[in-house]
Amino acid sequence: MQLPPAPPASSEAVRRVLSRNRRRDTAPELAVRRALRSLGIGYRVDWSPPGTSRRRRADIVVRRGRVAGFVDGCFWHSCSVHLHMPKANAEWWELKLASVVARDRDTDAQLLAAGWLPVRVREHEDPEDAALRIALAVEERRASA
Fold it and tell me: What is the pTM of this model?
């Protein structure tokens, strides 16, 4: 999906907020990683699983078990519970967020085709519950290997 050029930020405050968004090591991601570590699960961070596009990186990759974990932010990944569409530049944001969701689905398909299991958790989920979901997927895959 080809997006039109991004419009300028609607205000200086919006520009500051958007410029501070992190690609990795967000607070929800760090909390899930801490919880995974406490469960004894080792992982790589911000890594491209073999067999997939090198431009698609998972937040948490467990090589033994071939599980790719993603901690999806509610805004950027269009959470049905917490998404509030911006009013300024609404048409562009609708296209932008739809393209992120489409990329997520394509990434999941690439991972599955390469033998990896994608596990997506939301930033609003309890980190221990999210880590447990990832850990259970890892243990299930290891047991069946």
Answer: 0.88
